[in-house]
Design goal:
The protein is an alpha+beta fold. The protein has helices at residues 2-7, 23-36, 85-104, and strands at 42-47, 63-69, 72-78. Strands 1-2-3 form a 3-stranded antiparallel sheet, with helices on both faces. A hairpin with a 2-residue loop joins strand 2 (63-69) and strand 3 (72-78).
């Protein structure tokens, strides 16, 4: 996944030094998506995918959803991640909610 970030997204080693699950990385990816595909919005969701991370475990994980629009990129932090179906639904719902709120504010 780190090789993909370098090759496809053009992220430098310095940008991904601390790993991919960081707010600044999610923001960079959202911006790259918006610019590379010439769209009005770019959405990136990055999250921890450790098997033991669930919503009700001692370790719940971390996820970030970033939305890039012309002139602004916002990143939302979530204190849950992992591979459970419920965590994936929560993360995707919150990410799509960022898009919904942005569109409603226009």
């Amino acid at each position: 996944c780190i090789e993909t970030a370098r090759e496809v997204l053009g992220l430098s080693d310095a940008q991904i030094e601390g790993g991919l699950v960081q707010p600044q990385v999610a923001s960079l990816i959202a911006e790259h998506i918006r610019l590379a595909w010439v769209t009005d919005l770019g959405l990136a969701v990055m999250g921890s995918m450790e098997p033991g991370e669930t919503l009700y475990a001692a370790t719940t994980g971390t996820s970030f959803a970033a939305l890039s629009s012309p002139g602004d990129t916002i990143c939302h932090s979530m204190k849950y991640g992992g591979t459970s179906e419920l965590a994936r639904q929560w993360v995707s719902t919150r990410a799509l909610d960022l898009v919904r709120k942005h569109l409603l504010s226009q």
